[in-house]
Amino acid sequence: MVLGINTIDTVSLKNNVAGLAKTADTYDIPTVLSTIGREHNGPLFEEIRDVFPDEEVIDRTTMNSWEDEAYVEAVEATDRDRLVMAGLWTEVCVCFAALSALEADYDVYVVADACGGRSTADHEHALERMVNAGATPVTWAQVLYEIQRDWAADGAREAHQISIDHAGDFGMAVQYGDFLEE
Asked: pLDDT tens for residues 69-86?
């Protein structure tokens, strides 16, 4: 599915997805992974598989993951009322699942920079549609820093490393700050 993405370059997309996955892992956020037609569309990014090597990947046939019983059961088993969603394509799989989750009374946060669409119009209009239905758009870095909130709190070392590895210029600034402290 990544071959049809034209709203973000693959390197940036994979970097953002890796940052999000590491954030979820660092803070023990329950994660539900799914694909659609894995043998035709390819596996999950290696960056996700590396972070969650033992996590079951639900291989769906439906474009809307919310129409897959195993997926919905996995989400319900997390016992969470807030969902952070990302995936490919923004205008299809992500949008349909987010709208269904909103209908099921979940708070939905769509990680816009860990999603990709076939065109800028597709991606932007899908985000707009989700926002109009009640979803909140965020970036992967917003997710990390909103959870961490305090550099003196638990998880700061891991958040620091995730920033260095995946937060671009900010990550370089964090690394430079470390250098100055040595």
From this structure: 999 999 999 999 999 999
Average pLDDT of the chain, as a whole number: 93
Please state the pTM of the whole predicted model: 0.92
What is the CATH classification number for the domain harbouring 117? 3.40.50.850
Q: Give dist(CA 108, CA 85) in Å, integer.
A: 7
Smallest CA-to-CA distance from 106 within 138, 87, 73, 84 is with 84
Residues assigned a catalytic role: 93
Query: Domain for residue 42, yes or no?
Result: yes
Task: Answer yes or no: is 179 within a domain.
Answer: no
Q: Do the Cβ atoms of 122 and 91 come closer than 8 Å?
A: yes
Contacts of 36 (CB under 8 A, 6+ apart): 1, 59, 60, 61, 62, 63, 65, 93
How many domains does one find in the chain? 1
- Spell out the residues 6+ positions from residue 11 whose beta carbon is closer than 8 angstroms to its own: none
Range of the domain at 141: 2-149
